Amino acid sequence: MADLPEATVQIDDEAGALAGGTDLLTVFACVEKNADLVPRVFAGAKGLLTKHGYSPGVDYCAHHFEETKKPVIFIGLPTVTAGTIGRVNSSGNTGSCVISAAAGSAGVLEEVDLELTVAEGGGGTIGTDPITFLLSLDGGRTKKKTRLGTASSYTIAYVGIVLSFGAGTLVAGDVAFKCKTTAPRWDQAGLQAAREALVAKQLQSRSWLIVGDCLVKDDASNVLTEAKAYETSNDRFVFARAQVRDRKPSPEMSRTSVRMTGSPTLTFAEVGGTGDTITRSGGSWITDGFAVGMVVTVAGSVSNNVTGPIASLTATVLTFGTTDLAAEGPVSDCTVTGSYGLTFAEVGSTGDTITRSGGSWLADGFAVGDVVTVAGTASNNVTGAIAALSATVLTFGTTDLAAEVIGTASVTITAGEDDPTWVGAIDSTFGTIDAEPRIDLGAGRGPKLSKITGWRFRRPVQWAASLREYSHDVQIPCWRKSDGPLSGWDLEDAEGNTVEHDERVDGGLLAARFTCFRTYANGPRGAFIALSLTRATEGSLLSRTHNLAVADIACAVAQAETENAIGEVLELNADGTGREASLVVLEEKVNSALAIALLQRKKEGPRASSARWKASRTDVLNVTEAELTGTLNLLLNGTLEKITTRVRVQTAG
């Protein structure tokens, strides 16, 4: 059977592959709207925002347009896993207003560390007084004074979060509400459809940037599958930049408190062994945010200053389970506060559990294997590893618990992952992605001021590497020190303490072959790329992304020029091999194109030291489906990585 005539290029360990659009980056990212998987070229953030709305991918592009002065190919991916709101903490709220956060109509669009502080002079009663607060979405690095006025809700621009303020008061100076969110995520089906759409559009680029972390090995393998298919199925050559999961940011159990509003009188009724009640003369328990399963605390009565869980609830009647009350009332000037309940259960030698009546362990960032520490309880201040987890039930292995029911307001449950633990974990997770030059995995983040939102979000090292990469020609490493520190990036918190991974100080990521950040001991101050690495075989030149990019140009040129020879008629020798003169003509065409693309001195010098394509002199060509093979010998430029200086101190004489 006859096959479609074509020219192909294969790469061995000392060659590489990528497409000819050396100034174009392709960005794959989940989007707020029009997730139609259509590749489009954009040269400015305004048009991109209009078409797709805000997303982290759009935010990256805004940096790209400004810093590189180059366009991008942007592909909007459907959101498969929506961003979530978790780690809610309102324990610093001393007012009676209950603040809550919910996703907007398109879901949570950005990973944020939200902190709301009631401004000095900005407190008062919701709906009556002109409330103002200081809002931060980057953990306090950047704060913006925000006017709520007499409204009861506030929609935060771009990020897909709506804050709601219940009836009651806010107190000036309170850090009244905190939460953290996750960003939306893609899947392989979306990546595959995007790659196929990119092929149909015949748009070529130097590399791909996948926006959204690879949480597990399969995520990275999905990216790699599409980048390899682009070569093997589509005769185009790229490498994909992807980011592995972040260091777990100390997951913490949400703590949301509610408070009785107004000044109702309370009547306490003793019913029997169970079912004692508190009836209020006005207002509503439900409107104030109380719910079944919450643990409430009463203060200000004579006989009923108690704590216990709610068994059932109406607007005016709160019913306990086994909590004992004494007949009393109506009583004035009582306070009633509540928070979601925690039930500690002793199951046996293994499998003791903590069950929460509201919120989610998963949304708060906990995971199986995390070592959690519990504090603030009467009988269960313990540390242990999570053996199993659902939204509401945390199960330990051998950690012993005692039976106890308590509200979350007074309890902290935290976990964490220090830098060495994180490095070891991601090395173990992604280490088997080996001998693969088509993917560059980055690890570590640094704050970068958004061009769109004005917040200093923690952004992946791959963003920084890509921005520096496209600021130069393909043969220039994005880690060249003489280009200076990365613009606008740092590895420090608001107080100037180094809090992000610094390979110079912390180490481990380069040994595990991750692209990462570093600083230099003797300056200049600021963040740099340590190295930009593919997952090619250790020691291969193709393990450096700039070498792969140059090799990719050579492959793209060779593929295009040899494809132009399809249908050409060659003069043959008697044995069916090509005559020297005919083969030389073909070689000159290919090598001329290679010289233009790689060897001519451009603004930043030649891209390679030599590149020569040579046709086989032994292929028999007087047959159907004649195949001519060729060899491209590519000599890359050298790149200095280590310099050793010996100091000789001379003495007199």
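Second entry:
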Amino acid sequence: MATVYSIKHTDGIRTITIQPGTLNGPGGVLTDSDLQLYGQGTLQWGSGVDQNQLRLLENFAVDEKALSPGTPQDETDLAVSGAGVNNPVAGQQWFNLTDANLYTYDGAIWRLGGSVFADAIAPTNPITGTLWYDTVANQLKIYDGAFVSVADLYLLKAGDTMSGNIAMGGNEVTGLPATPSATGASSKEYVDSEILAHFVLATGQFVDSDGTGFMTGSLTLSYVDPEIEINGTGSGSTLFFQEGGANRGALLVDFPAEDLILRKLTGGVTNNEIKLLDTHIETDATNGKIRTPQTVGGDDSATLTTRLYVDTEVAAATLNGATVFSSLAVADAGDIAVTGGKIYINLTDASADWKQVWPAVYS
């Protein structure tokens, strides 16, 4: 009685069935693989076995499809029955004659093998992912449109040069030398120790922040629009000017009035001062006042006023019914004119009969 062959795959689950007197494979009743597998009683099986051995030996060597690179040609592409790779099984290998690479079928697609070419010359017909060890440069290179040295993509442990920035992502750079080179990265510990070693505050070297100590040289502010800010929290801020250790003058701002006061000091005691107030400038009470009114109409007899005020008052003034003029115009008898630093009196009504009375003119 004839026997049906049931050939198991390596996983012990899948099987290939071969009926007695039949062929399973290229040219057979069933085609479960690219090998010719013969059933019991099949005649003329010798050439088929030889064919199988040759295909296994050459790893089914055939070119790839022109329109589907990485896929082997089949009998349709070659126009030869049973030629090419038509029914691959998982694990089957195929040597691609087009790019000279060995591929493995994973049950769905063909995958390029993991071979690394070691040569002084780059491999021909490389594909993306091809690895080549350049024996001249002693570098491993990967193909991605062109061969790029892996050494150019990563930092070498033995030392390397960056061509871009490194973002630490909040992590630290540790293991720095205790004493770095002039251009080397420095640790916080090194910086702190250098500050302590080189910036010891020697007596008399700096002016203390508590106000004790004096400048022994000039202070030059060299900047665009430099400023000195005195930030006081009491009733006023004072800037003292000293000579020989004694206060000779002071400039202060009095709060809350916000008056600006310039004082002359003798033995630390105010000798005289000038105040810049909201409405006028004045000296201390013992030396009178110097005032510039904001508006016409000031009446302080100790006031130094403006030319505008004088001219306005003179133009509006009358003396016992006489009108005061600022020019020698037609006027009535008894009218007065003040012009050019001189005083005149008109002698005749409705005329310009002016007589200079001051400074006196003798004739």
